[in-house]
Amino acid sequence: MVRNKGARLASLAAVGVLAFGALAACGGSDSDGGSDGGSGDAAAKGKVGVILPDTTTSPRWEANDRPSLEAAFKAAGVESIIDNAGGDKAKFGQICDSMINEKVTVIMIVNLDSESGKACLSKAADAGVQSIDYDRLTLGGGASYYVSFDNVEVGKLMGTGITKCLDDAGKTKANIVYVNGDPSDNNAALFKSGYEEALKPKIDSGDYTLVGDQSGFWDATKAGTAYEQMYTQNKGKIDGVVSANDTMAGGIIARMKDNGTAGEVPVTGQDASTEGLQNVLAGYQCGTVYKNTNLEAKTASDLAIALISGDKDAAAALATGSVKDSETGKDVPSALATPVWVTKDSVQTVIDDGFAKAADICVDEFAKACTTAGIK
C-alpha cells in the first residue's frame, strides 16, 4: 500500500529534485562494474555505497541509473562507490560486506530478492550504517528509507494504457493476458496490483476476459515462452498483452513476429528502454512507462546527504510518502516520483530529457519510423 503525506512532485521540487539540467555523468568504472564518484567543493563528510542488481532484467541499471547516480552524487559533493552484483546473490553479499568494511555512512541497495537484501541491511544496521532501499523495497529488511517511483501507479498506467490501445483499435470486447515480473521482486507485485485495479471494471463488466496470467521473470526468453503457451492454450485468441516491462515485451513481440501478429495485438511495457522505444515507434508495442531515473537519483542523493548530516528535517521533507512493508506491517518513509505513460506521439520527450538518444533508437529498420514520428 502506498500513501502520500502531500503532493509528491511538489514536495520533491521544493528540495531541488526537478533541477537536473546542469548534471553531468562522472566517475570511471572498473572491469567488475564498480565506480568511485569524486568529491565536490562542499563535499559532505561521509560516503555512500550503492549496489545495483544486474545488467539483464532491465538495461536501465547501467544505462540510466548508474550515470544518474554518479552525476547526482558528484554534483552534491558526496563520495560514492557504485557496484553491480551481476545477478549473483553471493556477489551481492560480498559487495555489501566490502562497503561496510570501507566504512560507508549510508548504503543504498537494489535487492536481487528480499532474502539477500535483508541480510545486507541487517549487517548494515549492526554496523551503524543507515540504509536506503532504491527502487525495490526489501520486505522485512527494515531500511531507513525507500526511494522509488509510485509503483502501483506504474501498473495503473499499463492498465489504462492497454485499454486506450484496445479502444483505438476498436476492440471493446477483448481477451487479455498478463505477463508479470519476477515473483521474488516486490515491485512486480505492486505493478500487478496497479494494472489489476485499473482493469477490474473492464473485467467485471465482461468487456475484457483475462485468459492467461503468468510470470516472465523479467526475462525476454521466459516471457516469450509464457506468451506462446497462453497463445496456444487460447488458440490464438488473444487481443492484448499487459507485459510488466520492455525486456519481456521484446521477447513477446519476437513470438508475435513468428506467428504473424506483431503490431496487431497491443503490448505494454516499462522502462522506456531503447528496445522498448523502438518497438513503440514501429507499432509493435503500444506504449511504455517512462521513469526518469534522474528524479530517483537526485532524490536518493539528497536523502543520503541528509542522513550523513544527521538532518532529520531535510530527510522528512524528502520522504513525504510511505509504503507498507507487507512482511513487518510497518510503514517505510518513502520518496516517490511520478511515472509517465509514453506512446509514439511522446517518445521525443524521453529523448529531450536526455534519458535516451535518437542515435541509438533510430537505426536500421527503425530509422523510417523515427522519421515518420518526427524524432530528432
Task: Explain what you see.
The protein is an alpha/beta fold and 376 residues long. It has 2 domains: 2-149 and 292-337, Rossmann fold (3-Layer(aba) Sandwich); 151-290 and 341-373, 3-Layer(aba) Sandwich (Rossmann fold), CATH 3.40.50.2300. It has helices spanning 8-14, 60-76, 89-101, 114-126, 151-168, 186-205, 220-233, 246-259, 274-282, 293-309, 312-318, 347-352, 358-361, 367-373; strands spanning 2-4, 28-29, 35-37, 47-52, 79-84, 106-109, 130-134, 145-149, 174-180, 208-215, 240-243, 288-290, 321-324, 331-337, 340-342. It has a 10-stranded mixed sheet, with helices on both faces. Helix 10 runs antiparallel to helix 11. The two termini are 40 Å apart.
Essential attributes:
376 residues; alpha/beta; Rossmann fold; 2 domains; 15 strands
- Separation of termini? 40 Å
Structural class: alpha/beta
Order of helices and strands: EHEEEHEHEHEEHEHEHEHHEHHEEEHHH
- Bin the strand percentage: 15-25%
User: So, the CATH homologous superfamily of the largest domain?
Assistant: Response regulator
The name CATH uses for the topology of the largest domain is Rossmann fold
Largest beta sheet: strand ordering: 1-13-14-8-7-6-4-5-3-2
Average pLDDT confidence is 90
CATH class designation of the largest domain: Alpha Beta
Map the helices and strands.
Layout: E1 2-4, H1 8-14, E2 28-29, E3 35-37, E4 47-52, H2 60-76, E5 79-84, H3 89-101, E6 106-109, H4 114-126, E7 130-134, E8 145-149, H5 151-168, E9 174-180, H6 186-205, E10 208-215, H7 220-233, E11 240-243, H8 246-259, H9 274-282, E12 288-290, H10 293-309, H11 312-318, E13 321-324, E14 331-337, E15 340-342, H12 347-352, H13 358-361, H14 367-373
Parallel strand pairs: 4-5, 4-6, 6-7, 7-8, 8-14, 9-10, 9-11
Antiparallel strand pairs: 1-13, 2-3, 3-5, 12-15, 13-14
